[in-house]
């Protein structure tokens, strides 16, 4: 069953806060995109209940944009919350594919900023560039499965 973007992003933010690694809203969007690609490749299923939009600077989850836009280009300092203001995260021990996807992406990209990650999403043949060239408003799971533009950064 697809998960809420705000819940999954909190798993990434937990790593960032624990390791004292700054994550801007743009960086979070791109990390979420790469995690979602890894997850769909591993499971054949969508990770999130929301599609990535095809925005100027790469894939964007509108709900996370709204949640963190007040940070602009500065590091995020709080968790995403639900309508009641409560932050939730996934217990990764019960979600091994999610844990593996986040770990691979985090280990590979935690040292890069949002602009560098955005440049990766803009490479020819990426799911974003395919959707952009076709003037689509969202990125399909099939496109994400085939996106290998970032794979050279992943540790095996």
Task: Describe this structure as you would to a colleague.
By secondary structure, the protein is mainly alpha-helical. The chain is 49% helix and 4% strand. It has seven helices and two strands; from the N terminus they run H-H-E-E-H-H-H-H-H. The protein has helices at residues 5-19, 25-43, 62-68, 96-109, 114-121, 127-133, 141-146; strands spanning 53-55, 58-60. A two-stranded antiparallel ribbon has the order 1-2. Strand 1 and strand 2 form a beta hairpin. It is globular.
Helix and strand content put the structural class at mainly alpha
**Largest sheet: number of strands, sense, barrel closure:** 2 strands, antiparallel
In order across it, which strands form the biggest sheet?
1-2
- From the alpha-carbon coordinates, what is the Rg to the nearest angstrom? 14 Å
Total E-strand runs? 2
């Amino acid at each position: 069953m697809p998960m809420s973007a705000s819940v999954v992003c909190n798993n990434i933010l937990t790593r960032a806060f624990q390791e004292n690694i700054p994550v801007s809203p743009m960086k979070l969007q791109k990390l979420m995109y790469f995690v979602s690609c890894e997850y769909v490749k591993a499971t054949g299923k969508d990770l999130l209940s929301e599609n990535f939009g095809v925005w100027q600077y790469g894939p964007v989850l509108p709900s996370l944009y709204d949640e963190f836009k007040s940070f602009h280009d500065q590091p995020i300092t709080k968790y995403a919350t639900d309508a009641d203001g409560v932050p939730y995260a996934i217990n990764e021990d019960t979600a091994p594919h999610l844990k593996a996807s986040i770990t691979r992406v985090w280990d590979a990209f935690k040292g890069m900023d949002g602009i560098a990650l955005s440049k990766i999403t803009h490479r020819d043949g990426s799911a974003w560039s395919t959707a952009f060239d076709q003037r689509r408003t969202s990125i399909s799971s099939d496109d994400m499965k085939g996106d290998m533009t970032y794979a050279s950064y992943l540790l095996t």
